[in-house]
Design goal:
The protein has 408 residues and is an alpha/beta fold. It has helices spanning 11-22, 34-43, 116-123, 141-150, 165-177, 196-209, 245-259, 269-274, 284-303, 317-329, 343-349, 354-359, 390-403; strands at residues 5-7, 30-31, 69-73, 79-84, 87-88, 94-100, 128-133, 153-158, 184-185, 214-217, 233-238, 264-267, 307-310, 333-339, 381-383. The N and C termini lie far apart (64 Å). Keywords: ATP-binding, Kinase, Nucleotide-binding, Phosphoprotein, Transferase.
């Protein structure tokens, strides 16, 4: 008997899954494989010639073979669908039809969701003007005039994927108040595609599934990031043990608290290892997990405009990069400070006697001695604390925050 494989797709894949299940991506019935993808790229059709503009794919790193069934879970562990694998490639691309297991109810505004079939039934054969939107509709005259001309019901589809999702749904609800009675608002979690023409074509397909006689694409949102002193910021110190990360991080925290212009979340390395990451070792996998947890909490603080200070060793470049992406994906800024005090100086300080123990072979996998430290090549600030005072080190970081406008 083959065991049941479970897999949690990423946010983009889950959004596509929801549209596959709801019928918004009809005629697609599952995730695409290499042949279909090739045809989509080359000709804008599936391999059998059916018009289809964009890749809808799933990457799965588990070992599966054609015929296997994979239960697809949401991040909370709820099984959403079963995928029957028809192809699985070395790069993880996994194709096959899917079947729903339950109605997905996650995400804000779940009560507003309607499947395309439900919307078409509500239209009852009347013409529909479908408006897909990723930002506010400032001018409703074109929509009102077109709907009148077609004698059509207006259906607003706020494309609710991602950080701006809730705001675009609110914008649609507000616009509906100023549009004729009977205007429908249905959030659709369609993730944007990189190329604007492909994105537009995919929106056309989704609008058609929702019964569009005509489709209007709303204007692209103008995203003006707030001023830096109101944006979230993560100041992330990295460096060897004893390089001065905790000392400078504490000094920065105190200086910011004295100024009092920003809220500060301090994720002290020791506190993290005693609470958030209690029980983790110093293996590569556990260090990575530790850094991801720190990144997750810091990004949550920064999401709401907070300033978070973190000071772990964070020896791996790829994991630091993941944290940068996590933070930037919530609309906050990320500042990497490399405390580049050389190993000899850290070892000379040896405040906790750990280097001596590591040299004696009593601590295996000690960073800089028997475990790697990948020097950053993307640091926003580099500080060697060998010959400078603690105050001078703190002022350099504070100076960077002031000159970047993050602190006033
Ligand atoms: N094997 C090994 N390697 C490195 N460091 C070790 C090790 N074992 C214990 N310690 C102590 O743990 C502190 C580093 O923890 P971090 O959470 O910052 O490390 S990591 O980012 O997860 O790699 C580090 O503290 P700092 O000196 O504040 O950096 C060490 O005191
Ligand atoms: N300019 C400086 N900045 C930071 N620490 C310094 C500096 N000069 C000397 N030190 C000393 O170096 C040690 C750094 O330890 P710590 O801050 O715990 O490092 P880490 O958190 O990187 O392991 C402390 O004893 C600190 O007093």
């Amino acid at each position: 008997m083959s065991e049941i494989v479970e897999w949690t797709p990423d946010a983009h894949e889950l959004a596509d899954l929801e549209l596959l299940l709801s019928g918004a991506f009809e005629p697609l019935t599952g995730f695409l494989g290499h042949d279909d993808l090739h045809a989509v790229h080359e000709r804008g059709t599936l391999a059998d010639g059916t018009p289809w503009p964009a890749p809808v794919t799933l990457h799965l790193s588990a070992e599966v073979s054609p015929g296997d069934e994979v239960r697809l879970l949401d991040p909370e562990g709820l099984a959403l669908a079963v995928l029957t694998v028809t192809a699985h490639d070395a790069d993880g691309l996994t194709a096959g039809p899917i079947e729903a297991l339950g109605t997905p109810e996650h995400g804000p505004f779940a009560r507003l969701r309607r499947t395309p079939a439900e919307v078409r039934a509500a239209l009852g054969g009347r013409p529909a003007l479908v408006v897909t939107m990723r930002g506010p509709l400032d001018d409703l005259t074109e929509i009102t005039a077109t709907a009148k001309e077609l004698d059509a019901v207006i259906v607003l589809l706020p494309l609710s994927y991602g950080e701006a999702g809730p705001a675009v749904v609110r914008a649609a609800l507000r616009a509906a108040e100023r549009l004729p009675e009977g205007t429908l608002v249905v959030p659709v979690p369609l993730a944007p595609r990189e190329e604007p023409e492909i994105d537009l074509e995919l929106r056309e397909h989704v609008a058609t599934a929702y019964g569009a006689t005509e489709h209007l694409a709303g204007p692209e949102p103008v995203t003006l990031p707030g001023p830096p002193h109101r944006r979230g910021l993560v100041v992330f110190f990295t460096g060897l043990s004893g390089s001065g990360k905790s000392t400078v991080a504490r000094g920065l925290r105190d200086a910011l608290l004295e100024l009092g212009t920003r809220t500060v979340t301090h994720l002290d390395g020791d506190v993290v290892r005693h609470l958030l990451s209690k029980g983790l070792t110093f293996s590569k996998a556990d260090r990575d997990l530790n850094i991801r947890r720190i990144g997750f909490v810091a990004a949550e603080a920064a999401r709401h405009g907070g300033l978070a200070i973190c000071a772990p060793i964070a020896p791996y470049a790829a994991t630091r990069e993941e944290v940068r992406e996590m933070v930037e994906s919530v609309g906050a800024d990320f500042l990497l400070v490399h405390v580049a005090t050389p190993l000899e100086e850290c070892e000379r300080r040896d405040r906790k006697g750990l280097y001596a123990k590591a040299r004696a072979g009593l601590i295996p996998e000690f960073t800089g001695v028997s475990d790697p430290y990948e020097e950053p090549d993307d640091a926003d600030l580099v500080i060697d604390t060998t010959h400078i005072s603690i105050e001078a080190a703190v002022s350099r970081v504070l100076g960077t925050l002031r000159s970047g406008g993050w602190v006033r």
